[in-house]
């Protein structure tokens, strides 16, 4: 177990995974009109589970966990040009993930402030 895992627990890895998911969702949105573009997403729960695996199993690197949990989105209504991006779905998922990213970041900032105060003897 690394020092980072001890200090930040699951939240450091969750932040890294949320960041990767934000990039992927932004890519989907940017390619909404690209013919034959296939929308992708990360199964966040599966990736986090792999990245923080317990019970004698070695945790996976965050990037490996994200890659293993990545898949293509099945559209509700496919377009004629083969593009599977549904803009409203992508925007909703992006906004939801951004809020969760900010929440995780706020928790980590609080944790770091607590550690700084403890080190200063406050």
Automatic annotation (TrEMBL):
InterPro entries reported for this sequence: Flag_bb_rod_N, Flagellar_basal_body_rod_CS, FlgB
Limits of the Flagellar basal body rod protein N-terminal domain: 11-38
Subcellular location: Bacterial flagellum basal body
Source organism, top-level taxon: Bacteria
Swiss-Prot/TrEMBL keywords: Bacterial flagellum, Cell projection, Cilium, Flagellum
Pfam family, one: Flg_bb_rod
Record flagged with keyword Ribonucleoprotein: no
Main localization category: other
Protein family membership: Belongs to the flagella basal body rod proteins family.
Biological role: Structural component of flagellum, the bacterial motility apparatus. Part of the rod structure of flagellar basal body.
Subunit structure: The basal body constitutes a major portion of the flagellar organelle and consists of a number of rings mounted on a central rod. In Gram-negative bacteria, at least four rings, L, P, S and M are present, whereas Gram-positive bacteria lack the L and P rings. The rod consists of about 26 subunits of FlgG in the distal portion, and FlgB, FlgC and FlgF build up the proximal portion of the rod with about 6 subunits each.
UniProt protein name: Flagellar basal body rod protein FlgB
Species this chain originates from: Sphingobium cyanobacteriorum
Gene: flgB
């Amino acid at each position: 177990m690394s020092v980072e895992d001890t200090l930040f627990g699951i939240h450091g890895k969750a932040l890294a995974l949320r960041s990767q998911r934000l990039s992927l969702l932004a890519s989907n949105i940017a390619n909404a009109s690209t013919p034959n573009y296939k929308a992708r997403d990360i199964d966040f729960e599966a990736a986090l589970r792999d990245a923080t695996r317990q019970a004698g199993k070695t945790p996976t690197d965050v990037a490996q966990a994200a890659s293993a949990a990545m898949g293509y989105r099945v559209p509700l209504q496919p377009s004629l040009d083969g593009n599977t991006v549904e803009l409203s779905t992508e925007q909703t998922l992006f906004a939801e993930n951004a809020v969760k990213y900010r929440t995780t970041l706020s928790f980590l900032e609080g944790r770091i402030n607590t550690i700084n105060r403890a080190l200063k003897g406050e």
